Amino acid sequence: NKKAVALHSKVLAQLADQIAANPFAKVIDMIEGLLEKLKEEAASEADHKAFCDKELQENKLKRNKKTAEAEKLMAEVEGKTATIADMAASITNLSQEQADLTTAMSEATQLRSTEKAQNEQAIADAAAGAEAVKRALVVLKE
Questions:
Q1: Distance CA 73, CA 81 (A)
Q2: Cβ-Cβ contacts under 8 Å for 18 (sequence gap 6 or more)
């Protein structure tokens, strides 16, 4: 108020009177400003929490879906692994059967070759015998 009189300023004098009339006005304004700021922060925080909750729920659903897919694929892998093991066993059995058949075929071929040689010898002996019989008949007829 003294400065307002010294400067002859009515505006400054009115301001000084207002401040003097309510010395807590500035503090009240500051508190109201802080309350408004806290309300804005609370609203912002609520929005952020809602966003986070939504994202957490979506991520949980995605995680559950991916986990189910992974379990399905693991079951499929286990099934394919079992199929591979079965096929490997079949291949081993079939390879053994093929080896056995090859051995049997080789033995049969060798047996046929031996029998063929024996048959050819029997045919040759029979032909020689027939020739001897013909000559004997000729000798006997003479």
A1: 12
A2: 25
3-state secondary structure of 23: coil
Q: Which two tokens stand for residue 52?
A: 């986070």
pTM of this prediction? 0.46
Query: What is the per-residue pLDDT across 74-104, written as a single tens digit (0 to 9) for each?
Result: 999 999 999 999 999 999 999 999 999 999 9
Expressed in angstroms, the distance from the first to the final Cα of the chain is 183
- Residue 132: in which H helix or E strand, if any? helix 25-141
Give the SS3 label for residue 9.
coil
Question: 25: closest CA among 17, 57, 71?
Answer: 17
What is the Cα–Cα distance from 101 to 36, expressed in whole angstroms? 95
CB atoms under 10 Å from CB of 9, counted, come to 13
